[in-house]
């Protein structure tokens, strides 16, 4: 692929901090600040750089006002914890697309020539918060937040969209409706497809120590008296939470921090690190009042990315990493970007071909349904997993073939979709 | 020169008076609802208020069981509706213009949904939805 920046950009470092819950005993006594510092230093160590080498920080966090003691600008504190106080820092808030956008802005900072080495990092705790009158380690379940917070609802602005009685449903159902409408797939087949997808992603996650949920559905099914995992997936143990989406097909929220170091290509050579080249990125934003806006954003981003890569078809990529807030998103995005054939991708899920060891792997780390999802940090974590795959360092979920080209496609809030093309060029 | 004027207040005040307002671009004629001060087609800012009428064309009916509970992420879309009568989701458009939109549609039941879907596209009257915050929103209702 042909990289599209006037100054080539490389990724030379990533964190490997896992996705966990604050309820997990291994996280006892921790706050988001320790996780942030850990992720930032992991990425800097991986890149072989020190805090003094960092020219700029781009940081992503979506719900800081709610979950971090009603703080509006944590940039100074976060810089101190990572040892980069006094450096320029930009905070990105674009819902769950924040991490992806932070990465693209970090790349832009390097491509512009303004910065040589940029730390791109994010942190988020979707299910816990600390009160404004307590220090950050005194965390409480989000259900105790005054006024009870609905992450789905806050994704809609207050001009009109929060009050139409419609938008929440669209977060979960749109892709299923689209698939049925255009490809004549029955609701039963779609249910089987979504269940197979959940099983496949959990199988991937079971081999990834960084994933949040690592017990395979086959094992869970047996524990509940089912020999056939698909019987279990269709049962009341896995209830539908909307018309199409079952519990296993809904995003898994957890606490996480993540960090990535991007730098100029010449700097990567000086650092003598295994570098992944950033080929290009594109994004599109929309509002959920428009029918099928999720699908349309995928189309817009694909067109913006692929127009500069005339030889790229999509099915020639080695790997696709894509946000899967609910099941339909993975299928729709894989088909729109040409990674799976249009209208036929469901069969790939049913046949297990999208597993990490299949011929068309998608989300080998486990995806948002099993790997986990930490709002504004999620995009950085997903890009990190792509980088590990491309370096052959993903561990048990490593795709068993060379991963030299990868599309990372991310979505947040139902209003922003991002596409990032990566390649091993050195 | 861009004319600074209240858009949201005018819109919501008009709903209290039983009128649904959109905006029409005086440069290209495109109509947008809900109202926006910038034309979505040509980018111009010369838009006038435009009465959308009291009827829309329903293109799709999405009947689903809205009683199924989600997790804490996805709460009921009608959380703040005063009237909790069941409704479904539709895709529609105003006959006087506009792109398609999503909206709440009342009057569809398990018993009549197949017949109504077979009749698409069909007309539906505007139904004002009272919100517990003290204002109205716009939904639609199939004629009985």
From TrEMBL, chain A:
InterPro entries given in the database record: Thiolase, Thiolase-like, Thiolase_C_2, Thiolase_N
Domain (Thiolase C-terminal): residue spans on this chain: 312-417
EC number(s) per entry: 2.3.1.-
Group of enzyme by EC: transferase
An annotated Gene Ontology molecular function: acyltransferase activity
Keywords of the record: Acyltransferase, Transferase
Entry annotated with the keyword Transferase: yes
Gene3D superfamilies: 3.40.47.10
CDD domains: SCP-x_thiolase
Domain Thiolase N-terminal: 29-211
Keyword S-adenosyl-L-methionine in annotation: no
Pfam family, one: Thiolase_N
Domain of life: Bacteria
PANTHER family: ACETYL-COA C-ACETYLTRANSFERASE, NON-SPECIFIC LIPID-TRANSFER PROTEIN-LIKE 2
Protein name: Thiolase family protein
Organism: Loigolactobacillus jiayinensis
From TrEMBL, chain B:
Superkingdom of the organism of origin: Bacteria
Residue ranges occupied by any ChsH2 rubredoxin-like zinc ribbon domain in the UniProt entry: 15-44
Signal peptide: none
Listed SUPFAM superfamilies: Nucleic acid-binding proteins
Segments passing through the bilayer: none
Pfam families, per the entry: zf-ChsH2
Name of this chain's protein: Zn-ribbon domain-containing OB-fold protein
Organism from which the protein derives: Loigolactobacillus jiayinensis
């Amino acid at each position: 692929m042909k990289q599209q920046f006037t100054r080539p950009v490389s990724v030379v470092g990533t964190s490997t901090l896992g996705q966990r819950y604050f309820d997990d005993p291994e996280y006892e006594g921790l706050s988001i600040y320790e996780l942030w510092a850990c992720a930032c230093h992991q990425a800097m160590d991986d890149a072989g750089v020190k805090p003094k080498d960092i020219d700029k920080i781009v940081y992503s966090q979506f719900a800081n006002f709610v979950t971090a003691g009603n703080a509006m600008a944590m940039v100074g504190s976060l810089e101190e914890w990572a040892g980069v106080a006094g450096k320029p820092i930009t905070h990105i808030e674009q819902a769950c697309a924040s991490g992806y956008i932070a990465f693209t802005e970090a790349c832009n900072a390097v491509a512009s020539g303004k910065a040589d080495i940029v730390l791109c990092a994010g942190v988020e705790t979707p299910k816990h918060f600390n009160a404004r009158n307590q220090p950050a380690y005194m965390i409480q379940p989000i259900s105790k937040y005054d006024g009870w917070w609905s992450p789905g609802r806050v994704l809609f602005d207050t001009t009109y969209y929060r009050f139409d009685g419609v938008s929440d449903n669209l977060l979960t159902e749109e892709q299923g409706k689209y698939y049925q409408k255009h490809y004549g797939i029955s609701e039963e087949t779609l249910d089987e497809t979504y269940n197979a997808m959940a099983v496949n992603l959990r199988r991937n996650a079971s081999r990834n120590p960084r994933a949040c949920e690592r017990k395979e559905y086959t094992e869970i099914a047996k524990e509940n008296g089912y020999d056939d995992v698909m019987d279990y997936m269709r049962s009341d143990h896995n209830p539908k939470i909307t018309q199409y989406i079952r519990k296993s097909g809904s995003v898994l929220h957890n606490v996480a921090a993540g960090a990535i170091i991007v730098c100029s290509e010449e700097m990567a050579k000086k650092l003598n690190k295994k570098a992944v080249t950033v080929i290009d990125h594109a994004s599109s934003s929309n509002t959920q009042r428009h029918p099928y806006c999720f699908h349309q954003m995928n189309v817009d981003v694909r067109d913006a990315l692929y127009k500069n890569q005339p030889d790229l078809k999509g099915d020639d990529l080695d790997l696709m990493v894509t946000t899967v807030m609910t099941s339909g998103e993975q299928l729709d995005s894989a088909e729109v970007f040409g990674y799976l054939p249009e209208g036929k991708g469901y069969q790939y899920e049913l046949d297990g071909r999208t597993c990490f060891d299949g011929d068309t792997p998608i989300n080998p780390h486990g995806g948002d349904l099993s790997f986990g999802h930490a709002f504004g940090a999620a995009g950085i974590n997903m890009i990190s997993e792509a980088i590990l795959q491309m370096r052959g360092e993903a561990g048990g979920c490593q795709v068993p073939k060379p991963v030299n080209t990868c599309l990372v496609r991310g979505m947040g809030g139902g209003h922003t979709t991002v596409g990032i093309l990566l390649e091993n060029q050195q | 020169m861009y004319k600074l004027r209240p858009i949201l207040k005018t819109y919501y005040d008009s709903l209290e008076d039983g009128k649904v307002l959109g905006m029409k671009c005086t440069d290209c004629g495109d109509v947008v609802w809900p109202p926006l001060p910038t034309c979505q087609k040509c980018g111009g800012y010369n838009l006038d208020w435009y009465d959308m009428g009291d009827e829309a064309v329903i293109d799709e009916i999405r009947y689903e069981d809205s009683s199924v509970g989600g997790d804490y992420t996805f709460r009921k879309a009608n959380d703040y509706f005063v009237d909790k009568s069941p409704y479904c989701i539709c895709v529609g458009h105003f006959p006087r213009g506009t792109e398609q939109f999503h909206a709440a549609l009342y009057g569809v039941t398990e018993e009549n949904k197949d017949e109504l879907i077979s009749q698409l596209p069909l007309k539906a009257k505007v139904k004002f939805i009272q919100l517990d915050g003290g204002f109205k929103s716009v939904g639609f209702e199939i004629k009985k």
